Amino acid sequence: MLMRLGIIATLLWLVSVAPASAQFKQGEAEGPKVGNSQVTRWRVGVEVTASSGACLGGNGYISVPADWPEQEASVVEEDVSPEIKIRYSTIAGGVKLMNIKMGRLAAGQKAKALVTFEVRRSTMLPPEDTDRYVLPDEKKLPREIRLYLTPSPKIESRSPRIRELAKTIGAGEKNAWKKVEAIYDWVREKVKYQNGPLKGALAALKDGAGDCEELTSLFIAICRAAGVPARTVWVPGHCYPEFYLCDESGKGHWFPCQAAGTREFGGITETRPVLQKGDNFRPPIKIKGKNERRRYLDFDMLITGKVSPQVRSFREQVAK
Predict the structure, then answer these.
(1) Is the same domain home to 133 and 112?
(2) Residues 30, 59: one domain?
(3) Is 288 inside a domain boundary?
């Protein structure tokens, strides 16, 4: 399942799988728990070569692995040229970025900022008691969660067609978990997996076909229209959705499901590194023609001056 991200990544996975000892921060009795884990290393960054003449400098960003309840990411190696300064920031709580500031490069000079991350990614186990979860009260939701009830690029949750589906799928079902599961099964039944260009939730609904992005987008759109916060999780070469329910105490929890592929609802055996969570981001730097909100923030660099150097971004798995 190929995701249209424009990144350089290899999907050769290391086989070092070990039990994870850490639980989710919610505690043993609340929300999903982690299962087995896999450790991989990823090199992320940029290389700039002033091949056509002196370069005055530039600014850019590239997304990097971050910590999540099911994931731990740490820097194990840095290879940064003196001409480049890096710092890290988080966008909308779902994307960790390496911000890149590059100084002047002489003609023929090369500069790089390559950082190697070690990532421990765990599987997620569904809760044993699903009856305890209820739909969240939108008025009591934190602002950062309410954002996942609104439309995103290609997730048209306010479309009349999507709203009608949200009213009819699982109609009369008082159990929140079963209602979301009904949406999940409906999407998987109605939309046949078919790889192709990005077209979004409404187009997938109309065509009855789409790939992992379309199935994920349609599930999220219907969930949001039904009052269930939902968001996209991006991993190398793939994406899947998470939905948000509250326990009887009012505490919220995110649960994953596999929209395309094997049926996995409320838990997931995925061990590829989480790259980002969310699907509605504004780029941190202004580049002409690229300032619209995006489903995914990958890499961009704005070069100062009229000379265009060779720019190469990296996000690739490497051996330990």
Answers:
(1) no
(2) yes
(3) no
**Parallel, antiparallel or unpaired: strands 71-80 and 110-125:** antiparallel
**Do the Cβ atoms of 193 and 174 come closer than 8 Å?**
no
The verdict on pTM exceeding 0.85 is: yes
Report H helices in the chain: 143-146, 160-168, 176-190, 201-207, 212-225
* Residues 73-126: tens digit of each pLDDT: 999 999 999 999 999 999 988 999 999 999 999 999 999 999 999 999 999 999
Same domain, 110 and 88: yes
Owning domain of residue 109: 17-123+301-318
Is residue 292 in a domain? Answer: no
- Helix H or strand E encompassing 252: strand 252-256
CATH of the domain at 171: 3.10.620.30
- Lowest model confidence (mean pLDDT) among 117-121, 130-134, 258-262, 283-287: 283-287
Backbone angles phi, psi at 94, to 5 degrees: -120, -10
Helix axes 160-168 and 212-225, enclosed angle (nearest 10): 70
